[in-house]
Task: structure prediction
Amino acid sequence: MPIAKISPSLLSGDFGILAAECKRMVSHGADWLHMDVMDGHFVPNITIGAPVISCLTKHVDAFLDCHMMVSHPEKWVDDFAKAGAHLYCFHIEATQDASALIDKIHAAGMKAGVAVKPGTPITAVKDLGDKMDMCLVMTVEPGFGGQRFMAECIPKVKTLREWFPNLDIEVDGGVSMENIDAAADAGANVIVAGTSIFKAEDITQTIQDFRTKVNKQQELLAEKAPEP
Result:
């Protein structure tokens, strides 16, 4: 049964004190740290690259969940592996050979994630279920934080969970206490949240509430799963 992993999005943090923001999230109970990598080409915004990840790993002891919103994701695998990234999640829309890219990521010593934009059918990743370590379902258009949660993307999560009962399934984009139940009920277990965590009155409690809701639903899904 997949367990909850709460991954605060550092895009909502203060980049001037990024290492301190990472440590702060870990101290509040974050399981992973979600690092949004944008190249100004695949998406219109520009954020950070491998040199920043390399600096962070010297000061922060945490699992770095790197969301690669970049064109030609094959180009950056080795750089991010050397920088200390733990999970390299590329967009299915940005590569011609996702299977080969997953092999390259694994060979570099990282877990491989595959992200799907709102307009991309989930069937695009069905053949990768035995290879990818995680699938990220975007619930906003990638590129900027603080957007509205797109509930119409949640059926993709339900389909993925039916296909792959043990896969880590991540949702990213506008996730809050108002909509976490929809994501959890569909089967998501990795929760990316930026604004709703960073601006919470009680960050520790907010992270714990996300975790509790997800784990409760995963237990229910496991009970309903057919016997092998």
User: Anything to note?
Assistant: The mean pLDDT is 95.
